[in-house]
């Protein structure tokens, strides 16, 4: 086990004791946790610069640690938890068989976004604000959000913390605002680790903070050579920035250029063989950001693999099937290598499950071990090609859009020349379709649905709302500020939720 994870699993206990409002104090899972003051962190970092690095490792650990949403649920396992939430809300992922009930009522029946007392609202909120708090502790230890570290090591850590803070705020904006409205007050902003509560601020203020954080992060991370892909480097920060700009929608040319910059980080697109190779190895050249999981980390059933993989000790193996929406599957050409990612066996329990996209390398139903060793992917370079294509088209540069779209599609079908004839809305529609196909199950469909202001029609293999057409800004697709936040944050009430 490498040094990164040794630091991370120790320091995670320092930073898990946070949630907006005071309700976190009532969480038994956090008993005994402690949080340092900003001055203590800064003093400690002055004595031992490794303190902030250890804290940063701890924040990264939160992204794959179970219970970081403040629950004991089997759908609470870090950032990948919300990849499942969002894929199901987008309807591209169908819960086609439900035996144990995870995701059924609250997510696939979309009850949680209509009722702020549902725990899923609180879980998403607590997780991403814990990431914010952890990043703020690192930033405070380096002198505060406006400080400029005086050495390269400090700048690298500051860059990672600011990029990850922006990443957390980005997902909060996606989950808690229907669509970008600059003047709508949506979330509190915290830029230090000591402010306990705050009022909601406008979306413009939050996006401005994300852009500032990411601009600084990109500058600070110039020259940073990371030791493993769990850490954010310059190209990952550029990728996050491209997503932020794409969601804001006010400068598609800048978003296009940022995605192109991220591509230049030296990654290669996953080949046709690799996209049916299991998505289980962080060393895959096309992965920009991910986590190298191993038996010492001890993840098991409560994990993304435990919810998604038929070939692990998992819910899909025992009776909860997650499948591609059959309408989306029908749009994948027969000669597209990605068609083979899904089992085409009508009438079977495994029909349209991703048995040849995501799988443990042992490929044994129920798994040969209860410990997860297959890795997590957070970002890959194909996303940047597709985002560069989308933003290029929105900026009026159809030629560039076609080039970046063909970069991906030519790896998936024998002949991608049909793209040469596309322009305008037809080109945008094709980019959106290819984004949904290429990134299925990776937590990006919801983001693309919002950017494209799309309406999704559910296929026949869903357990609820079959055939329903649901627009991107439907009330049922956006979470509510949770009950606990309203109870304990004096600046937020039911009147302005």
From TrEMBL:
Residues 117-240 form the SusD-like N-terminal domain. Residues 353-453 form the RagB/SusD domain. Pfam families: SusD-like_3 (PF14322), SusD_RagB (PF07980). Keywords: Cell outer membrane, Membrane, Signal. Gene3D superfamilies: 1.25.40.390. It comes from the Bacteria. It is found in: Cell outer membrane. InterPro entries: SusD-like_N, SusD_RagB_dom, TPR-like_helical_dom_sf. Belongs to the SusD family. This is RagB/SusD family nutrient uptake outer membrane protein.
């Amino acid at each position: 086990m490498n040094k990164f994870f040794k630091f991370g699993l120790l320091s995670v206990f320092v930073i898990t004791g946070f949630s907006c409002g005071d309700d976190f104090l009532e969480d038994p899972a956090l008993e005994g946790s402690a949080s340092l003051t900003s001055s203590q962190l800064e003093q400690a970092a002055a004595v031992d610069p490794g303190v902030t690095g250890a804290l940063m490792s701890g924040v990264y650990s939160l992204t794959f640690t179970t219970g970081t949403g403040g629950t004991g649920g089997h759908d609470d396992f870090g950032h990948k938890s919300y990849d499942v939430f969002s894929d199901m809300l987008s309807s591209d992922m169908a819960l086609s068989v439900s035996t144990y009930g995870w995701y059924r009522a609250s997510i696939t029946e979309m009850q949680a976004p209509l009722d702020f007392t549902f725990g899923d609202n609180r879980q998403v909120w607590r997780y991403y604000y814990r990431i914010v708090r952890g990043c703020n502790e690192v930033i405070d230890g380096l002198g505060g959000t406006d400080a400029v570290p005086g050495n390269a090591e400090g700048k690298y850590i500051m860059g990672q913390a600011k990029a990850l803070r922006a990443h957390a705020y980005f997902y909060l904006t996606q989950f808690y605002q229907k669509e970008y409205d600059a003047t709508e007050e949506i979330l509190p902003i915290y830029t230090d680790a000591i402010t306990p509560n705050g009022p909601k601020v406008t979306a413009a203020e939050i996006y401005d903070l994300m852009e500032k954080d990411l601009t600084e992060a990109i500058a600070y991370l110039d020259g940073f050579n990371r030791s493993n892909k769990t850490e954010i480097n310059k190209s990952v920060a550029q990728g996050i920035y491209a997503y932020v700009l794409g969601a804001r929608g006010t400068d598609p040319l800048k978003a296009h250029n940022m995605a192109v910059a991220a591509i230049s980080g030296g990654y290669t697109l996953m080949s046709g063989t690799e996209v049916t190779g299991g998505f289980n190895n962080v060393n895959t050249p096309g992965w920009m950001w991910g986590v190298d999981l191993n038996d010492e980390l001890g993840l098991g059933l409560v994990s993304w693999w435990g919810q998604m993989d038929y070939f692990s000790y998992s819910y899909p193996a025992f009776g909860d099937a997650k499948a591609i929406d059959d309408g989306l599957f029908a749009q994948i050409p027969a000669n597209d290598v990605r068609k083979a990612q899904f089992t085409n066996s009508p009438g079977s329990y495994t029909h349209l499950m991703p048995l040849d996209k995501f799988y443990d390398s042992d490929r044994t139903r129920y798994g040969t071990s209860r410990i997860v060793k297959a890795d997590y992917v957070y970002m890959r370079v194909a996303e940047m090609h597709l985002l560069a294509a989308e933003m290029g088209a929105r900026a009026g540069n159809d030629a560039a859009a076609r080039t970046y779209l063909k970069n991906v599609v030519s790896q998936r079908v024998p002949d991608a020349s049909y793209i040469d004839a596309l322009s305008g809305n037809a080109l945008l529609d094709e980019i959106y379709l290819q984004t949904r196909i290429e990134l299925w199950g990776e937590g990006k469909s919801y983001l693309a649905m919002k950017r494209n202001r799309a309406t999704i029609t559910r296929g026949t293999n869903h357990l609820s709302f079959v055939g329903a057409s649901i627009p991107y800004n439907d009330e049922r697709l956006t979470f509510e500020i949770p009950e606990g936040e309203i109870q304990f944050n004096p600046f937020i009430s039911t009147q302005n939720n």
